Request: fold
Amino acid sequence: MFCPYCRYPDSRVVDSRTTDDGLAIRRRRQCPECGRRFSTTETASLNVIKRSGVVVPFSRDKIVSGVRKACQGRPVTDSDLAILAQRVEETVRLSGAAQIEANDIGLAILQPLRELDEVAYLRFASVYQGFDSLDDFEAAITLLRVEHEAARSSNDSEATVE
Reply:
C-alpha cells in the first residue's frame, strides 16, 4: 500500500476493524518513511455479469431501484428496501463467487421480497421468472395461498399444544 503523502511503497497496519455489517475491513495504517497515518477500506470485489455480457461492480442501490418499481404504491419503506438489498448482497456473497449473473441476483431477490410484500413479489417475479400468461400468475398465487394455509394450520396446531 503506497503512502498517499510521500508515495513510499509500504505501510504498517496499526489497527483493523470490520465495518459495513462485516462486509468491509477498515485498516488504520502508518507510513514507516514519513510517519503519517491514513485509513484504507478493503472489500471483496463482487462483479455482476449483465445479460449483454458487460461486467459491472455489484451495487445495492441498483437492487433498491429495481425493487422500488415493483413496490410502487405498496406499504414498503426505504428502510425496508435497504434491509432487503443487504440480505440479497449477503446471500450473493455467500456463494463465494467473484462474479455473478444478473439473473441470479434477480432470483436471490425473490424470497426476501416475498416476505416483505407479496404483491411486489408477484410483480417482480413476473419479470425474473418470465411469466408468459395468466396461468403463470395463477400458479404463483395458488402457491402463495397453499403456503399461507400451511403456515396458518401450523400456527393453529402450536396454539392447541400450548
